[in-house]
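Fold it.
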Amino acid sequence: MTSQPIEIEGTWEEIVAHAAELAGRRVRVIVLPDKPKALTPEAVPPFRPPSGRSLLRHAGTWAGEDFEDCLDLVYNTRSEIEF
């Protein structure tokens, strides 16, 4: 009968505190990355609703010759929706 693995998580100092109960047993140690620092309220940028300005710089710049084909594809492949 196999016993279930024991999972211990914490700092190295907290893990070493279990040294006596883990003596002679096989263990696996995984070093986790540091936790990301929480953003302070000053570091969070204020919410700005989207304006669409970034899209306007592309207005009138279509250079392809397949616009009508793409538009037809959209119309032909869309399906009706039921509510």
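The chain has four helices and no strands.
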